[in-house]
Amino acid sequence: MEIQLIRNATMKITYAGKTFLTDPMLSPKDEFHPFAGKARNPTVELPLTNDEILEGIKSVLVTHTHPDHFDPAAGKTVPKELPVFCQPGDKAQLAEAGFKNITPVDTADVWENITISRTGGKHGSGKILERMGIVSGFVLQADGEPTVYWVGDSIWCEDVEDAVEQHNTDIITHSGGATIPGHDPIIMDEEQTITLTNAYSEAKAVAIHLELLDHCTVSRDHRLEVAEKAEIPASRLFIPNDGETLTF
Question: Does residue 59 sit within a domain?
C-alpha cells in the first residue's frame, strides 16, 4: 500500500492494485475566501501538476463536500467517468458537477475486491457542530493489504473510537486543529491525535490536513514536537510533506 499526500486531505492511495484520489481540492493558492479571517485559501500551491495528480487514478473517495475537500477546480478537472464513492447526502452535488458513476456508501460497498466501509464522525462540538454538517470517514479492506481507516474531518469522539476498535486498523487522521474563531477545534488537533495514537498501541497513524488553510492551527513541526514529548516513536506516527509518498 502507498499513500501519497498531495495537499490537505487530497491523497493518492494505492491499495490492492488500484489508486484512489481522495477529497480532491485542486484550486491554486489564494483561490477562495478565508475561513478564519487570516488569509485566502489554499495558503500553498499544489506540489504537482493536475496531470501528475490524476495519473493512474481509478476511483475517487469524497468524505464530504466542503470546499477544502471538493472544490470547483476538482469538479472541472477530475474525469467525470471515474467511479466516485461518497456519503449519501452528497450524491446530488457530485451529480450536478457532472460525475456519472456515483456510489453513495450507506454502510459498505465492494469495488474491485476492495471493501469500502463508511464511518461516522463529528466535525466539531457544541454550537458549531450543526453548522458543519454531516461528515464521513472510510475504511479500506482487501486480502493481502493492511486495513486502513481514514478518519476524515472529525474530532476524537465515540464514532472514531468505535471504528478503530471494530476494524483493528491503521489510521489516517486529519490533525491540523482547524478552528473557526470562537469555537473549539472542528478536527483533531495535536493532543487528540496523541490520544488516539496512545489508545491503539499497535496502529500506525498518518497525520494530514496540515499547513494549508488559514483556520488550521497545528504545524508539522509542532505536531512532531508533541509526538516526541509523548514518546510516540517515528515508526508509529508519520507526518508527510505535500507530495511525499509513504509505503507500508
Answer: yes
CA 90, 145, 2, 61: dihedral to nearest 10 degrees? -10
Q: What is the DSSP string of 128-153?
A: HHHHH----EEEEE-TTS--EEE--S
- Whether residue 247 lies inside any domain: the answer is no
Q: What is the CATH number of the domain that holds 172?
A: 3.60.15.10
Angle at Cα 189 formed by Cα 187 and Cα 193, nearest 5°?
100
Q: Which three cell numbers stand for residue 85?
A: 464513492
Indicate the average pLDDT of the chain: 96
**Residue 9 sits in which domain range?**
2-240
In a domain, 23, yes or no: yes
C-alpha distance from residue 176 to each of 49, 70, 143, 210, 227 (Å): 24, 18, 32, 5, 14
- Whole-angstrom Cα distance, residue 27 to residue 54? 14
pLDDT tier, 247 (very low <50, low <70, confident <90, very high otherwise)? very high
| Total domains present in the chain | 1
Predicted pLDDT of residue 202 = 83
pLDDT in tens, 106-139: 999 999 999 999 999 999 999 999 999 999 999 9
Using CA atoms, how far apart are residues 93 and 73, in angstroms rounded to an integer?
14
Residue 245 within any structural domain of the chain: no
pTM above 0.85, yes or no: yes
Q: Is 120 in contact with 159 (CB distance < 8 Å)?
A: yes
Nearest of 135, 106, 140 to residue 121 by alpha carbon: 135
Quickly count helices (H) and strands (E) in the chain.
7, 14
CA distances in angstroms from 151 to 1, 203, 205, listed in the order given? 17, 13, 11
Tell me what the mean pLDDT of segment 208-214 comes to. Answer: 96
